[in-house]
Amino acid sequence: MTTEIEKHWLHVIEIHQYTKEFFILAEQHQINYKTFLEVHQEPRHVLEHIIRAKSAELGLKPLLKKSSLNEYEKINMSKALGHAYRGFFDAADFFSMSISSNIDSLIKPYNHDCILHVFPEYYQTIQEDIFNLRTDIGYIRARKDVEIGDDILAEVKEYYGKCMALMTHYRTVLKHLGELSRYKRNEINKMIISCIITFILGIIATVVTTNIFK
C-alpha cells in the first residue's frame, strides 16, 4: 500500500466517523434523515469503491495486470474519498439546517420580555453566535469542492466544529425551556387575574355610580 493510498484510507475513515456522529445525534434529537434520500446514497458509493480497492490489494482482480493493481487501488480510494466528502456534506447540511430550524422553533413561543428575564444570555451572546455560525456554514457550503486535495479534511473538521457549536446552543435552549414555560404561564395567569380584577372593579364602579344617582 502506497503512502497516498494509506492517506486516502485514513481520511475516509475519519470523515466516516464525523458523518456517523451526525446520524447518531439525529436519532437522539428526532431529526429524520429518512426524508433526505441523498444522504444515504454517498455511503453506498464509498463502500463500493473501497471494496474494489481492497479487492485489488488482496489480488482478487485476476483480469487486471499486476502492474495496474496499485493504480486501480489508488483511483478507487480517491473516488471513495470524494464520495465520503460529499456524503459528509450531505449529512452536515441537513443536520445544521435542522438544528437551526429547531432552535428557532423552540424560542419562537416566548416574547422578548420572557427571554430577557429568564434567559438573558440568549440575547447577550447566543443569538449573535448562532447568526455567525449560520453565516460561516453558508461560506463553507459555497466553497465545497472535492478537488481541494489536502485541505479536504481541514474543511470537514471546520464544518463539523460549526455544527457542534450549533448543537451546544440547541442544548442550552432546551435546558431553559422549563423555566421559560413557567415564566410565560405565570405572566398569562397574572394577566387573567388583572382582567378579572378590572372587570370586578368595573362592576363595582357601575353599581356605586348607579346608587349615587338614584
Q: What features would you describe in this structure?
A:
The protein is mostly helical and 214 residues long. The chain is built from 6 helices and no strands. Helix 1 packs parallel to helix 3 (66-107) and helix 2 (38-57) runs antiparallel to helix 3. It is rod-shaped, with a radius of gyration of 29 Å.
Bin the helical content.
over 70%
- Rg, nearest Å: 29 Å
Order of helices and strands: HHHHHH
Count of alpha/pi helices:
6
Measured between the Cα atoms of the first and last residue, the distance is: 108 Å
List the helices and strands and how they pair.
Elements: H1 3-28, H2 38-57, H3 66-107, H4 112-118, H5 121-142, H6 152-212
Helix pairs in contact: 1-3, 1-6, 2-3, 3-5, 3-6, 5-6
Keywords:
rod-shaped; 214 residues; mainly alpha
Gist of the model:
It contains 6 helices and no strands. With 214 residues, the chain is mainly alpha-helical. The protein has one domain.
